[in-house]
Specification:
It contains five helices and twelve strands. It catalyses: thymidine + ATP = dTMP + ADP + H(+).
């Protein structure tokens, strides 16, 4: 379990905490927990999320179990420093959807004495590092990786498998579009999709050759 750092008033620097994992792993739930503790301690807290995330609410950061906290939607990372002026704690949800400038924004805030808490997907649906998350994790003092439960094996899940055929890297979705899978389940699912695609292409190739007139 993550234990919040205590503030050393002699050292005028903050720090960065990253909460990462797959879909349905509790990233936003943990982000909200830490931010509400800071609010209870009467610290000045601001929460930001990408403006494109309107799945549950335009202004609230909402977890899958409907726990929520008020936030400010922003179109780009560059908007955060101005809005976060004078804050003790800054929370950022769905950080993978921000531009690369989010890394320097978080570090600048931490260098000014702000505690920065960031939550986001560490991998996209293809199993590749997602957006600015690797750099955020590398520069953070604390990284917490949370896991979902695999829907097919019951083991810990770290992959977000996309059930729909959309190949866009950025695609907001829920249980209809994604399911959390373990390494073994994800490997089997992706190999199954490749085999299906290969079979379809083979049939198309044979059909096209049969239709060609003899020379």
């Amino acid at each position: 379990m993550f234990l919040e750092n205590t503030v050393n008033h002699k050292e005028q620097f903050g720090w960065i905490e990253v909460i990462c994992g797959s879909m349905f792993s509790g990233k936003t739930e943990e982000l909200i927990r830490r931010l509400k503790r800071a609010q209870f301690a009467k610290q000045k807290v601001e929460i930001f999320k990408p403006a494109i995330d309107v799945r549950y609410d335009e202004d609230m950061v909402v977890s899958h179990d409907e726990n929520q906290i008020r936030s400010t939607p922003v179109p780009a990372a560059a908007n955060i420093p101005i809005l976060a002026d004078g804050c003790d704690v800054v929370g950022i949800d769905e950080a993978q959807f921000f531009d690369d400038e989010i890394v320097s924004v978080c570090n600048d805030l931490a260098n000014k004495g702000v505690r920065v808490i960031v939550a986001g997907l560490d991998m996209d649906f293809k199993g590749n590092p997602f957006g600015p998350m690797p750099n955020l994790m590398a520069t953070a003092e604390y990284v917490t990786k949370v896991h979902a439960v695999c829907t097919r094996t019951g083991n810990l899940a770290q992959y977000s498998y996309r059930k729909s055929k959309n190949d866009d890297i950025v695609m907001l979705g829920e249980v209809d579009e994604y399911e959390p899978l373990s390494r073994a389940a994800y490997y089997k699912a992706t190999m199954s999709e490749k085999i299906k695609t290969m079979k379809v292409k083979d049939v198309e190739d044979v059909t096209s050759k049969q239709k060609k007139p003899n020379a």
